[in-house]
Amino acid sequence: MKSNMASENHFLLHFFASRNPKFVLLKIIPILVFYCVVIFKSEIAFYKIVGYFLIGLFSWSFFEYIVHRVAYHKRTKSRGVQWFLDAFHLHHHNNLMDYRVLNAGVLLIYPLTIIILGIVYLLTSNLVFVSSFGLGMTLYYLLYEYIHYQIHKKRHKKGYLNMLQKYHLHHHYKNWNKNFGNTITIWDKVFNTYDVNYKHLILTDNQVNDLILKE
């Protein structure tokens, strides 16, 4: 098992990770409040706000794929950079029962929010667009955190969570370089990283036990 920042320094988990999606929600309430205040004070047409919001939703689905595939799975020449990028993702792959790294913490959420929305504001100079877009991204992000937690929390025998669980665990157990999507499969299909064999995934008893988190 390779060492990484999270494995070597567990105290960092208090800042970079969360125990479950409820704690993620509590941490991002100030962000959501800011978006809503800006939107409600604006005089822009409602249909435009909805349009910006939907663009935000769509953008997060793509962003989660890119981050997972590029930031977490591409190797860099810098050992320091790679050590940082591997910090929690590699720890997660090596310790599936460690619920502490299933969701992000404040020192990942807030810097990422500032960077993304700062770039969007520089491109648009429109605070209402940024807030509506950010609200869409953030709510989809919450869905992502919830789904990732549920995928590793227990075994789902039917429905969409069952499909996503097989899809994600096929990535963990069978093919590290395929099935990077966590909430939808469309981007894997677009970029040819979709492995249909996840449909035939059969988990061993030990692997099933790995899904039952004990908080």
Automatic annotation (TrEMBL):
Highest taxon of source: Bacteria
One matching Pfam family: FA_hydroxylase
Main location: endoplasmic reticulum
MF terms in GO: fatty acid 2-hydroxylase activity; iron ion binding
Positions of transmembrane segments: 21-40, 46-67, 101-123, 129-147
Location of the protein in the cell: Endoplasmic reticulum membrane
InterPro entries given in the database record: Fatty_acid_hydroxylase, Scs7
GO BP annotation list: fatty acid biosynthetic process
Membrane topology: Multi-pass membrane protein
Annotated Fatty acid hydroxylase domain residues: 53-193
Keyword terms: Endoplasmic reticulum, Fatty acid biosynthesis, Fatty acid metabolism, Lipid biosynthesis, Lipid metabolism, Membrane, Metal-binding, Oxidoreductase, Transmembrane, Transmembrane helix, Zinc
Cofactor: Zn(2+)
Name listed for the protein in its UniProt record: Fatty acid hydroxylase domain-containing protein
Organism of derivation: Polaribacter porphyrae
Phylogenetic classification of the source organism: Bacteria, Pseudomonadati, Bacteroidota, Flavobacteriia, Flavobacteriales
